[in-house]
Amino acid sequence: MNSQEKELARGRFKLKIHESNGQEFEDLFTSIMNYAEQGFQAIKPWGNIGDRKNDGYIKSAGIFFQVYAPEDITRSYVQVVNKIKTDFEGLKKQWTPINEFYFVVNDKYKGVNADCEQAIQAIKKEHGLNDAGFKTAKDLENLLFSLDDDQIFSVIGFLPDPEKITLDFSILNEIIKHLMKLPLSREGDSLIVYPDWDDKIQINNLGRIESQYLNTASFQVASLDNYLKNESIFFAEGIKDQIRNVYKNLENNYSGNDLFWEIVTKISPRQDSSIQTSVIILLAKYFETCDIFKEPK
Q1: What are 200-222's pLDDT values in tens digits?
Q2: pLDDT by residue (tens digit) across 267-286?
Q3: For residue range 217-234, what is the model confidence (pLDDT) as tens digits?
Q4: 172, 243 Cβ separation under 8 angstroms
Q5: Which residues of 159-180 are buried (b: 16+ CB within 10 A; e: fewer)?
Q6: What pTM, to 2 d.p., does this model score?
Q7: CB-count exposure of residue 76 (10 Å: 0-12, 13-18, 19+)
Q8: Domains along the chain?
Q9: In sequence order, what DSSP letters do the residues of 158-204 get, joined into one string?
Q10: Do residues 32 and 66 touch, judged by C-beta distance below 8 A?
């Protein structure tokens, strides 16, 4: 698949995630795992014995999966914690050996809270497991896009002709909409330290106003990073690639402040201050990581 087809495929998969609850999500998980792990065996409930707390496993490695898909994960954290504990206790009584245990939850790209993570890590420690943790929507997406194209289509269905659709900046528009909803950040700077910010502003001949916009936007980069942590690798890389492509297409014809504003104009779906502010947050992130603009030597 080319990048446009991958973007469309990701959109279709994301729609499946948001529409899948209960058995539908378990079937989606099973269809991906059947392709991704040769030794994976799904376990379906049978009569009055159920699935014995095992929704699927890789027998040769002793890796077990339990699947849970509430309609609204944010209202179900107490149930998630309780289900992790009861499901593992039931699993341990019926299956052996258990080397790894994963709780597959449809978080709908929202992430899981700290109580859930502590509960599953407590199980890992108490029972001496090699590993334990969550598999969420972003993990399934990453796994899906590691498959061959025909396997991906088998999971999500075939795509329409890319030449008959327009997707130019849909992946950027998705994150711009999210950034527009962000409250003012109370978090510190991004955890990663990159080449000196002021030196880079000076080398790229950015003016006082442009540097001030970038400085202000940089306070929101930590919130942006938190959002991207719950998205797939493909989504995060797609954002970076599209912004870098815009920069590369403009850098030979523009420089300094003109280059800065041309990028903002090109990426913004409308020349609206709230949209442009969100776009500058994206520029601040990739300015900081030296994916765009000249890097200090």
Answers
A1: 889 999 999 999 999 888 888 88
A2: 888 888 888 888 999 999 99
A3: 888 888 888 888 888 888
A4: yes
A5: beeeeeeeeeebbbebbbeebe
A6: 0.64
A7: middle
A8: 3-156 (3.40.50), 170-288 (no CATH)
A9: PPPPGGG---TTHHHHHHHHHHHTPPPP-S-S-SS--S-HHHHHHHT
A10: no
